[in-house]
Design goal:
The chain has a domain of 132 residues: Tetracycline Repressor, domain 2 (Orthogonal Bundle). The chain is mostly helical. Helix 4 runs parallel beside helix 7. 72% of the residues lie in helices and 0% in strands. The chain has 9 helices and no strands. The chain is elongated, with a radius of gyration of 20 Å.
Length: 204
């Protein structure tokens, strides 16, 4: 049987998906290039055709994760069945879902030597999240559900606060601290958006 040749974009995507699964399952440091190509079923040289190092494919994995999140957020923002409060809650719910396997990957990003990679990931995530959430808040203002004077200026502040808080608390072993600070963030969101207490829940 002859060798199966795939479109380069398809093959690259296979490598990125395999690497992402392995990084989440085992942690970045515990995964080798050999592990990645073995999972895909290709030769080691195939990896180096697309990526120079394991850190290059890490960037691709992060980009893919952000693209998938952006697709989800845009889908929520465009959902005609939800009002603005329901859309914002759906965004929060999606962002709070962390697979147990992903904790290894998150721990890797939080190490001191990966500070630059972590910051790049955070800023890309923020840039991705701001446009659809701004759309949702502006829609809520038009619906009379939110009382926000400057949605385009307010949303980035909300995203930065929530993103950094969630990121910091994701690594904290103190669950009481986690819930206290998330409840405090809920109070801030209630006041900023001009909604009733309990209309948005950041934690169950």
């Amino acid at each position: 049987m002859g060798r199966i040749t795939k479109d380069p974009a398809v093959r690259r995507q296979e490598l990125v998906l395999a690497a992402g699964d392995l990084f989440k399952e085992k942690g970045f440091e515990q995964v080798s290039v050999s592990d990645i190509v073995r999972k895909v079923g290709v030769a080691q040289g195939t990896f180096y055709y697309y990526f120079k190092t394991k850190y290059d494919i890490l960037d691709a994995v992060i980009d893919l994760y952000i693209e998938e999140t952006m697709t989800a957020f845009n889908g929520i923002a465009a959902d005609p069945a939800l009002n603005a409060i329901e859309k914002l809650q759906a965004v929060v719910n999606f962002s709070m879902r962390i697979d147990e396997r992903e904790k290894n990957f998150i721990q890797f990003l939080h190490t001191d030597e990966n500070l630059i990679t972590h910051q790049k990931y955070m800023m890309r995530s923020f840039d991705m999240a701001i446009p659809p959430i701004t759309t949702i808040v502006e829609e809520g203002v038009q619906e009379g559900l939110f009382a926000v004077r400057y949605p385009r200026e307010t949303v980035p502040l909300m995203v930065y606060m929530y993103g950094y808080l969630q990121d910091f608390l994701a690594m904290s072993g103190d669950r009481d601290e986690f819930y206290r600070k998330m409840r405090a963030a809920e109070d801030i969101f209630v006041k900023v958006l001009g909604i009733k207490d309990g209309a948005i829940r950041l934690v169950e």
